[in-house]
């Protein structure tokens, strides 16, 4: 009997304690304090966003755990204020609905802050995109070479909108025998670079040039290095390019290019330092034997203006030969699967070899009649380490032949380039320093990070610039084998693809500025069987799946193409926020109605005697 009474007393005490805590949490004074604090925080966030940008407000306010805790505390106050009035009378239905709406609205806001996505998608006409770029998130990719190819590991992180203070680092730990750490991060960085001799003799060649104007006065210096991943490392003006030939027979392609006037061009196939010319138009979709080697080359497709669709797929953005490319299949005659390769007329030495991790026994140089001659100097290093040069002036090539350190090269308009230094094998030393954007600039240069990689007791540090074609990707030699490390923005898959068919700009009267712009896209969602065209404009977003696409801006590329930029958003709390707002409006309406009803009843009641 005594134990039953004790149990009842404990339950009674717990109920009283719960009631006391609930009344404390439901305090009107606490509600006023929380609302005032929240208003001050939102005002500070608005000022921070206006002064420093949205990223600052997201990082320091909306994305902070303390801000989520503040919203949760306000929700507890609202819930407690509702519960202490239980059981509710019919006259309190408006009060309960309003407070329930506030709770739903807060829950939706918290869900948005925790799980919401804000990204960006940028593409040119003819290009398809299947991923969105997360502007606030950075990502390191480390690729290690394996027998079956390259294996890539991704490390995503939130660096924040400020430079990291001294001593701060991010340790990703050990993955596949490689330890990755980020030692420094600068949100805006200026770079200083130089090239030094690579003792391992595995590095790409580099040359240092001194530029002189028409009056033979010094106009600056520039380093030019070969880029195995494509693209042309270019100085300001004039332009310079350096490539490394894997075979000595390719020197003739450089010094004695084939003179083709019309058609789809000629493919020079190199095997064992012998050249086999293959005319593209006559040999499309045919297997062309390469001497008596048993190897044959099949030209599977020709793209006049090749653009990547991702996943190794290409298409042609029109019939004009702006970027001619061939897709090839190399049949080795051993019964195995053929090797896939590509050949670009503008970048003839770019191939799949490095990324595939498998050597191809034949090399290619694609000549096309409509590829313009670049203005400036082009250099080629042969396998014996010698350097050769040709110069483009007024759309014509002038052969300079072999060059050495100390040689002068005549350029356009009387200017000259002096070969100061030639490194047959070089590695780049790049350092970055923190800087602030100049006054009046909304954006500064891209971010840079100092990354440390350790493999089998050998530690190396490398500077990487985020999203940069030249400094965003580095190849590092380690005892287990080469590593490819890159620094960019995190990208997440959409689950479907958008292809930009056409980009339109509407001009103001008198051609005084852009009034509007819109993207005509093709939406392909194989999972849902959707393939249709849509228009995304400034006032007409596209909604598909959980994402909403807004036409935010555009930019012009140096080659004249236009890049359409879409903002992409996913708001998981949108429904709850809309529902909560509706419930608040209904609750306030009901409270007004109930108050009016009580007033009418009071006026209709007879006075007491």
Determine the structural class based on helices, strands and strand pairing.
alpha+beta
Number of strands: 33
The proportion of residues forming helix, as a percent range, comes to: 10-25%
End-to-end CA span = 55 Å
Largest sheet: 6 strands, antiparallel
Mean pLDDT: 86
Number of helices: 8
Q: What is the radius of gyration computed over CA atoms, rounded to a whole number of angstroms?
A: 33 Å
List segments where confidence is low: pLDDT < 50 over at least 5 consecutive residues: none
Hey, roughly how much beta strand do the residues contain? 35-45%
Form type: elongated
What do these coordinates show?
There is one protein chain. This protein has 609 residues and is α+β, with helices and mostly antiparallel strands. Among the domains are: 2-84; 195-428, no CATH class. Helices cover 23% and strands 43% of the residues. The chain has 8 helices and 33 strands. Strands 2, 3, 27, 28, 29 and 30 form a 6-stranded antiparallel β-sheet that branches. Strands 1-33-32-31 form a 4-stranded antiparallel β-sheet, with no helix packed on it. β32 and β33 (562-570) form a beta hairpin. α2 (28-52) runs antiparallel to α4. The radius of gyration is 33 Å and the shape is elongated. The model has no long low-confidence stretch (mean pLDDT 86).
């Amino acid at each position: 009997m005594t134990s039953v009474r004790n149990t009842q007393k404990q339950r009674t005490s717990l109920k009283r304690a719960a009631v006391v805590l609930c009344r404390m949490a439901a305090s009107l004074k606490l509600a006023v304090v929380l609302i005032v604090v929240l208003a001050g925080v939102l005002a500070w966030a608005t000022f921070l966003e206006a002064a420093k940008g949205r990223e600052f407000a997201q990082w320091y306010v909306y994305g902070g755990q303390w801000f989520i805790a503040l919203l949760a505390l306000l929700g507890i106050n609202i819930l407690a204020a509702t519960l202490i009035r239980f059981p509710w009378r019919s006259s309190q239905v408006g009060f309960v609905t309003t407070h329930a709406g506030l709770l739903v609205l807060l829950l939706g806001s918290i869900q948005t802050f925790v799980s919401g996505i804000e990204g960006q998608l940028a593409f040119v006409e003819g290009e398809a995109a299947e991923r969105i770029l997360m502007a606030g998130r950075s990502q390191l990719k480390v690729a290690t070479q394996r027998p079956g190819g390259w294996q890539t590991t991704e490390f995503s992180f939130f660096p924040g909108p400020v430079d990291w203070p001294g001593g701060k680092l991010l340790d990703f730990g050990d993955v596949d025998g490689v330890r990755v750490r980020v030692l420094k991060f600068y949100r805006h960085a200026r770079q200083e670079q130089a090239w030094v001799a690579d003792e391992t003799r595995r590095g790409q060649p580099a040359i240092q040039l001194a530029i002189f104007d028409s009056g033979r006065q010094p106009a600056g210096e520039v380093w030019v290095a070969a880029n195995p991943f494509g693209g042309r490392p270019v100085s300001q003006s004039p332009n310079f390019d350096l490539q490394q030939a894997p075979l000595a027979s390719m020197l003739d392609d450089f010094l004695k290019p084939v003179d083709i006037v019309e058609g789809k061009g000629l493919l020079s196939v190199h095997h064992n330092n012998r050249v086999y010319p293959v005319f593209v138009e006559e040999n499309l979709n045919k297997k062309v034997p390469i001497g008596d080697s048993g190897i044959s080359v099949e030209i599977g497709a020709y793209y006049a203006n090749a653009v990547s669709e991702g996943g190794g797929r290409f298409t042609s953005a029109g019939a004009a030969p702006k970027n001619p490319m061939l897709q090839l299949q190399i049949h080795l005659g051993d019964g195995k699967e053929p090797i896939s390769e590509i050949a670009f007329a503008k970048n003839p030495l770019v191939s799949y070899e490095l990324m595939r991790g498998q050597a191809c026994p034949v090399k290619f140089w694609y000549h096309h009649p409509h590829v313009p001659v670049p203005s400036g100097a082009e250099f080629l290093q042969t396998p014996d380490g010698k350097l050769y040069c040709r110069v483009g002036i007024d759309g014509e090539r002038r052969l300079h032949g072999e060059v050495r350190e100390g040689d002068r090269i005549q350029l356009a308009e009387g200017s000259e380039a002096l070969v100061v230094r030639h490194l047959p094998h070089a590695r780049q030393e790049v350092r970055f320093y923190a800087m602030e954007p100049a006054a009046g600039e909304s954006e500064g240069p891209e971010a840079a990070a100092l990354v440390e990689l350790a493999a089998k007791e050998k530690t190396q540090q490398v500077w990487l610039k985020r999203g940069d074609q030249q400094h965003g990707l580095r190849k590092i030699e380690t005892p287990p084998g080469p590593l490819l490390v890159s620094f960019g923005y995190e990208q997440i898959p959409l689950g479907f693809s958008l292809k930009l068919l056409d980009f339109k700009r509407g001009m103001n009267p008198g051609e005084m500025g852009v009034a509007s712009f819109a993207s005509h896209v093709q939406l392909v969602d194989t999972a849902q069987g959707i393939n249709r065209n849509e228009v995304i404009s400034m006032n007409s977003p596209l909604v598909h799946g959980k994402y909403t696409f807004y036409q935010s801006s555009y930019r012009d590329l140096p080659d004249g193409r236009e890049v359409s930029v879409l903002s992409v958003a996913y708001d998981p709390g949108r429904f709850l926020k809309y529902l909560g707002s509706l419930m608040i409006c209904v609750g306030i309406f009901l409270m007004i109605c109930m108050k009016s009803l009580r007033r009418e009843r009071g006026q209709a009641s007879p006075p007491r005697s």
